[in-house]
Amino acid sequence: MKTMTFIALAISLTFVQFVTAQETEQPQKVKETIALLNAEKEIIENEEKEALRVEIEAIMKRYEDGEITQDESIKLKQEAAERRALNIENRKTIIANKIALIERNGIANDTLKDNGYTLSIGLGTLDRDDNTRVFGIQYKNNNKVKDTTHHDVRTFSEFVLATSFMYSSVNDQSLSNSPYDASDSGSFELGISWNTRVFKNTNFLRFKYGLSFVWNTYSLDDNNYFVVDGNQNNIVEFSEDLDKSELRLTNLVVPLFFEFGPSKKTIENGVTSYNTLHKVKFGIGGYGGFNIGSMQKLKYKVDGDRVKTKEKRDFNTTDFVYGLSAYAGYGGFSLYAKYGLNDTFTDSTLQQNDFSIGLRIDF
């Protein structure tokens, strides 16, 4: 019992000493905090002046680049100066209100501010947007100036999807004498492209480049298929009735275009960009790449049973592919054409060049 009484007395004395110490330290903390808040007024002026300087530099750059007139630049600078002056006035008023609140009520929490940095000790997360409190300790830079620099977006990316009919000229014969079924032969392209504005102050000319996978499918007519004999390809008749006879070549290519056409200029949140949506466009250029695979697919019936075969091999195809291409369209849709300058096969007895025409979608 005496021991419990002694412990209770010791705890009471410790609590009284702690409260007394807090009451003694409170006036000193009030003075220090008020001094820091008064110093923050000067920091506020420096922050807003620096932000104004950055804004004016951005405005002058737009004027020098010809994006705005002299009268517009003067108006924008006046508006920026008025806005920053009002910011200084409002932020100083907030500081004055904090000082008045502390003088009247004392310090409500252990928050120390120095040169725009805040250190708070407590539980939980006070600021959901900032989320800088970890394990009850929050550290925040109040001096961070918002980036108001003007940005000019000159490059953007798009996905490319294209499909086309493909016509092949073999041994300089007319298309009507081609061994392929033109209605069932075609090309399919899937890739990504980048558009870069060529000139600084106009988007009329763009350089378009990218990387695409291209699948060329050749559908043979007259129950024929390919037979490889050493370095030579032969088109011969199959022993059964073929439902399908296709040779598919897979290429990895780099398309390169110069694109022409109007666009809409927009400036939002200090960012200049150009929009070609709902605008006419034309492109001319070419492509180059490599053949990375070839496969022949046959479908037929034997005694009523369906048979499907796939043969992957070289088929004497050209390793390096290249050609010319052009397109014309509106918005994200275009009609395009391309012509392969390389021979499809290395076999000198089967000289073949491909011409494709179809639909291209940039999205």
Automatic annotation (TrEMBL):
**The keyword Coiled coil appears for this protein:** yes
The answer on whether this UniProt entry bears the keyword Signal reads: yes
Q: Which UniProt keywords apply?
A: Coiled coil, Signal
Superkingdom is Bacteria
What does the record list as coiled-coil region(s)?
30-57
From which residue to which does the signal peptide run? 1-21
Question: What protein does this entry describe?
Answer: Outer membrane protein beta-barrel domain-containing protein
Which source organism?
A: Croceibacter atlanticus (strain ATCC BAA-628 / JCM 21780 / CIP 108009 / IAM 15332 / KCTC 12090 / HTCC2559)
